[in-house]
């Protein structure tokens, strides 16, 4: 169908963080995007709150982090208190990765503002608020969205319309998993008066709870709704203030938001139906105990955007889109399972189980080597592609993992590897210039990927002063093929012959070289 018959390449339904991040990454790749949001104004109250180092890396890579630097609380310690308020565990260390703490919080309205501001600078992306998508109909060439008073025609649509997604429901997709019977009172306060500066879990089987600091003097409190509680009472101002005061939270604070949540661990039976795709809470929801809700949605955006852009630019066949769920679902299962186990262990309401937990935590904390190991280890399952056909795992133990992104020295100037690699594929030569060893077939494959070639520690302009990449990889010299989402797709030894990248042609459904409009960011 002729290009002029489409209003945009991709229509995104929903302007939450997942929808905005997807639009931003597609727009940076030159894709024409229209984001449709039924709310007239952005949310002004917090919802998601926790970040990990991968989320921070993603925000830095797309140029959002510097816009909202004051909206974060970094390097949070954790304390676990028993029913009597005695410390079961206290961790002041916070694991680090990619130049960030692995544990911290953010203020979601500011995050969405930063994403919206970055999008507004991309002429190929349009954000339309006050627009409700009433139906989506697809055919062989594209999708047509019914907007009530009009329609919009796109080549693909991505539904980021939340856990109750009307798009998912219209597709008839079952939301597999479980809904927990427990409900939680979630309270966001202003003018925080809590004496601690980190995360505190109140491991009291009579009423488990937790508290987490947030930017701007805010603090999140969560209390389990117990059997027999009246929901109207436990969400009242007086009840909330009494519970917070019992936990040492003072009395002079303001309340920004108070809601009752039911937690879920569910995912859609499919993430793709033809030209319609699901992302974020529309595709999966998880309990909050491991802080992986919004983080999972941003991972969706990172995994999907480059594949969709590649299809639209003619690099890949559309079948590569089937790898989106294949790659995301295993990590989602691991993260959700961890969150469920953590919640069940820490927030149990069974006195005998709580007694056993308390004894175990105190025992581990009393052994310095064990305590130190746990303190410096991030227990949340990482974004690792173990069985994806889009990575060649047998090539090296680091294949399928996120590449490190140290500060490199470029003519005396400190530059992150992420910035040097740009928004697309990159072949990083560690200790060798890629151009000097690539054969004709491998060069052709890299051209078809649109890959950027970099040489680090080759005697040229790019140096790794701390040797981070060599330590991380454990091999030098080497050629490291990195995907746009920073997952290592392959590691090759120089001099192993031409055609080492032939496996990519079938795995990625590679087409002949296509003209691309990717934005260079090095």
UniProtKB/TrEMBL annotation:
Task: Give every FAD-binding domain span.
Answer: 7-336
UniProt keywords (A-Z) are:
Oxidoreductase
Q: Which GO terms describe its molecular function?
A: 3-(3-hydroxyphenyl)propionate hydroxylase activity; FAD binding
By its UniProt entry, which InterPro entries does this protein fall under? FAD-bd, FAD/NAD-bd_sf, PheA/TfdB_FAD_monoxygenase
Enumerate the Gene Ontology biological process terms.
3-(3-hydroxy)phenylpropionate catabolic process
PANTHER family, from UniProt? 3-(3-HYDROXY-PHENYL)PROPIONATE/3-HYDROXYCINNAMIC ACID HYDROXYLASE, FAD-BINDING MONOOXYGENASE
Q: What is this protein called?
A: FAD-dependent oxidoreductase
